[in-house]
Task: structure prediction
Amino acid sequence: MKRPVFLALAALWAGCAAPRPRPAAQIPPAAAGANFELSSYEVVGTPEEDTLEYVQVFLDGRLQGRTEVAAKSRPKLWLGRISEGNHPMRFEVWDSTGGASGVRRPEDLQPRERFIRVEPGFKTSAVLRFSEQGRRSLLSITYEPRPR
Amino acid sequence: MLWRVLPILLGAAWFWACSPTIDEVEPNDDMAHASRLPANGRARGTIGRPDDVDWYKIAIARDSGVLSLHVGGIRDVDFVLSFRDKDGRELKRIDETGVGGDELALDLGVQRGVYYAVLSNKNPRAANPTQKYVLSSKLESAAGRELEPNDSALTATPLEINSLTRGHYYPATNFLSDPPGQADEDWFALRSDRPGLYALNLDLSAVPNVDPVLEIYDSNNYKLKEISAGGVGQGLGFRDLGIRAPAQYFLRLRPRSRGMSNPDVFYELLNELRPYDGRTELEPNDQRADATPFEKDAVTGHIAPAADVDWYRVNAATSPRQILRADLSPVPGMQLVLTVTDDLGQPLLVVDNGLKETPQVLTGIGLSNATYYLVVSEKTGRAANGRDAYTLTKTLVPWQPGLEWEPNDSTATAQAVKIGESVDGYLAPAGDVDYYEFNVYQKGDILCELTGLLNVRWSAELFDQDNKPVLAQQAAKMGESLRFDRELAPGTYWLKLQGADPGQNNVRDKYTLRLKAR
Result:
């Protein structure tokens, strides 16, 4: 009699302890007249490493949106409208092979938060490049005049 | 002194005097009519006309041996001494002297059976039909001796493992080579059948008048190493050739140039094969693909020959973030350089304090989940030292927050630090630059404190996120701490730390960087 109870408890515990994909984040729709573009991709060594991922965009600690889900090596875009000024921005990488909602990569593999300036009359483009199996990330920012 | 060598001289004279002597029986101009020459004996004959050829048949009555032949020179005659097998195939030809000179064949490897010694004359005007020459032969044990002809890998003399082998840089010229007339060379085969990983050491004695070159080949005839003595009359040594048995390797020994020879003094080649214990380098480890696994805490190696480069593989794949520290001991007469590379062999950090005969210290580099390489080299590429080993030691410690994470030599690799935190790091090796990146979320006064370092006069520069310089500060003198503050607007900043002079560094002491908001 005790055995089924034990097994049920063990199954319950295992279910709680196992890492579960987080639920899909609420993604605000991309604003019209975007003045910010993120393009993220990863350098992979083999086709087997070229699994699915996406990147979430945080501004001042708040989720703004995310890129599409695509293979690591493919540039993934997010377009948004951001208020002008200097903002701390964070790009969070999620592995999505296991499901669309994905699994957040460990903290030490996440790009660090950086301030990015959004200038009036300019489109800000951020390119995020991952390499060395995601251990290294390089963020480059460029500006181009935006027709009003 | 004389009384010591006199018995030996007398014994030798007695031996030669008492060895059987026969006279040639003409005609002995071909193999079918060869005269008999005892394996330990002498023959007397004449060169009746310039094109006279005298054949001698030597019967070997033991399983193996080393035969030497000597003919004393006579007036007008320029001897050529040829050694042939039972079928008359020429194995060795000796023609080292001119008219009236002796000829000497050494280290001829023989087995039970029949061989031939053939004497001929090269001087077309020779006219000395009456003077007798003496051709003598001597048979010795083959143990520990080179066995001529061993002029190619195919005819290499087998080496007994862990033993001494003797031979001669003689003759100077190989008339049977292709093309003829090349310098004589001696090949040896080293075979290890017991499976395992071994380290092979070689020592070659010095011989007057000869500058030796030793080459090592694998069974595919790929040259693995070439070692030069670096001068006439010098010996050479080589340590820690990696042998993955079962395997066969070949050694090619030759003088640097053709004129060098010495029939009087043996060279002695000592080989030592021992199971690999992980404490030494395994040559050849001159490139990434051949790197020696660096699994223990320390490994020893040699920079030999000149321009030798030693690669070691450090596997840090088991832990996400570790700090590798390494020490490279000095070697007399050398300025060693230690380089850290990534898994593709791209240099990450070069440790070179610019001084001869001093240790090189890698104070720390961050490794994460991958394979890395440590590369030891000599700066000039011209120095070699086969006697004195360097020792390379390493430690791998888990990284902790608050420790510097090298490489952080650029804004792209800057280490993140938060306001209110501190970091301990090294300004080393020479030329080191450390970048730190921090965010200011609220406008305020940011204080930067940097502890003093012996031998370093601090220079600090602050850049904003657009890479524009915000401020630059320098300590008053070496060893002094640095402290400055500045009101900063919200943004991302980079702090660049370095010595006022690129040569300033400190491998012994850590600095502490602290950032505070006021």
